[in-house]
Write a structure and sequence with these properties.
Helices cover about 10% and strands about 30% of the residues. It contains three helices and 17 strands. It has helices at about 15-35, 40-45, 50-55; strands at about 70-80, 85, 100-105, 105-115, 120-125, 150-160, 165-170, 180-185, 200-205, 210, 215-220, 230-235, 240-245, 255, 285-290, 295-300, 310-315. It is mainly β. The longest helix has 24 residues, at about 15-35. It folds into two domains: about 70-185, Immunoglobulin-like (Sandwich); about 200-315, Immunoglobulin-like (Sandwich), CATH 2.60.40.420.
Length: about 325
C-alpha cells in the first residue's frame, strides 16, 4: 500500500511582504544617497599628483619661463534664444572668441566673468572636442560648481609645448554651442635671463600649518585668515632667505618650483628638506638662494599632494 506524502505549502503574510519591500526600498534610497553625494568624485579625473608620479605628459609649466605675461579678459555671453554661446561678442560680431597667440614659456592670465543668464565654468584643454582634459591650474569654477550670473574668477596657463590649445566653457554642451577659442603656441623665444646679483637681501618666514581635519594645508595662516600663503615679490639677482617651521602634525618640505603641478620642478636651489626626507612636526629649516630669471613661479610643499590641498603661493621675480 503506497503512502502519499501531503503537499507542503509555504505561505507568508502581508505584513512580512511589506517589511521586505520596505527594506529593499531603504537599501535603494541609501545607495542612491551615497552615489549622488559622491557625484563630484565619480565624474572627476584622478588627482594630478598621480599623473605626475606616473610620468604622464603635462602640457603646462615649462622648466624655463620667458617672463612674458599676457592678460586676457573674457566674458561668457549668450544669444537671446540661448542657442549661441560665445566669449566677448556674439557670432559674426568683432571680437568673438578672440584667438590668443603666445610662445612656449609665456603665461596667460585669464580674467573671466559670467555676463550671461546661465551657469558657466572655464578651462584650457588640448582636446579638439568635448570638455575633458582640462589642464590643472587653468580652471575657473567647475561644471559641478559653476559661476553663477555676475560671478567672476581668474586662472593662469603656461604652455609647455607648441601646438593649438583651446579655452572653453567646461559645462557639458556649451563648447558645442560656441564657447571655445584658440590658443596658438609657437616655439619659445628663449628663456628670460637672470640678472647679476644685486646685493639686495630679503628674509621671509613661511611656516607649514594645517586645519584640524587635515583637509586644508597652507603657509602661515589658513584660507580666510590674515597672512595666508603670502605672495613674495623680489627682483632678479636678489638674495632670498626663507625660514620654515613645521607647525603641523604631518611631514612637510619646501621648494620654489617652475610648475606648481610638478613637485619635482624645484629651482634656484631653494629646497628645505625633501619629500623623501621631510621636516617632522616641530622641526624647522632655512634656505638661501639668488632669485633667477624674471617670471611668476610658485612655492609649495613638495610632499606629493600637499600643494593640491593648499600649500602653494606665488613667488614673483621681476
Amino acid at each position: 500500500m503506497s503512502q502519499e506524502h501531503p503537499t507542503e505549502y509555504y505561505r507568508t503574510t502581508n505584513s512580512r511582504v511589506g517589511k521586505m519591500l520596505a527594506i529593499m526600498l531603504a537599501i535603494c534610497i541609501v545607495g542612491g544617497v551615497i552615489f549622488f553625494s559622491m557625484w563630484d568624485y565619480w565624474i572627476s579625473e584622478p588627482p594630478h599628483v598621480i599623473s605626475v608620479m606616473a610620468g604622464d605628459v603635462d602640457h603646462s609649466g615649462p622648466a624655463e619661463a620667458t617672463g612674458i605675461t599676457i592678460t586676457q579678459d573674457l566674458q561668457f555671453l549668450e544669444s537671446a534664444d540661448f542657442r549661441s554661446l560665445t566669449f566677448n561678442a556674439m557670432i559674426d560680431e568683432p571680437g568673438v572668441n578672440p584667438t590668443i597667440e603666445m610662445s612656449v614659456g609665456d603665461k596667460v592670465v585669464f580674467n573671466v566673468v559670467n555676463d550671461g543668464m546661465s551657469f558657466h565654468a572655464f578651462g584650457v584643454t588640448k582636446d579638439t572636442e568635448g570638455f575633458a582634459g582640462i589642464i590643472p591650474g587653468s580652471e575657473v569654477a567647475a561644471p559641478t560648481n559653476p559661476l553663477k550670473p555676475g560671478e567672476s574668477g581668474t586662472a593662469e596657463f603656461i604652455a609647455g609645448e607648441e601646438g593649438t590649445y583651446y579655452y572653453i566653457c567646461t559645462v557639458p554642451g556649451h563648447r558645442d554651442q560656441g564657447m571655445v577659442g584658440e590658443i596658438i603656441v609657437s616655439g619659445s623665444s628663449g628663456p628670460a635671463v637672470a640678472a647679476d646679483p644685486t646685493g639686495v637681501s630679503h628674509e621671509f618666514t613661511l611656516d607649514f600649518v594645517e586645519s584640524d581635519d587635515f583637509r586644508t594645508l597652507a603657509f602661515n595662516a589658513l584660507p580666510g585668515e590674515e597672512g595666508n600663503n603670502p605672495t613674495i615679490v623680489v627682483n632678479s639677482g636678489d638674495e632670498v632667505t626663507i625660514t620654515s617651521v613645521n607647525a603641523g602634525m604631518s611631514f612637510h618640505a619646501f621648494g620654489v618650483v617652475s610648475n606648481p603641478d610638478d613637485f619635482n620642478s624645484v629651482i634656484f636651489d631653494s629646497a628645505i628638506a625633501a619629500a623623501t626626507n621631510p621636516l617632522k612636526p616641530g622641526e624647522s629649516g632655512s634656505t638661501t638662494f639668488i632669485a633667477g630669471a624674471p617670471g611668476t613661479y610658485h612655492y609649495i610643499c613638495t610632499v606629493p599632494g600637499h600643494a593640491l590641498q593648499g600649500m602653494i603661493g606665488e613667488f614673483i621675480v621681476e
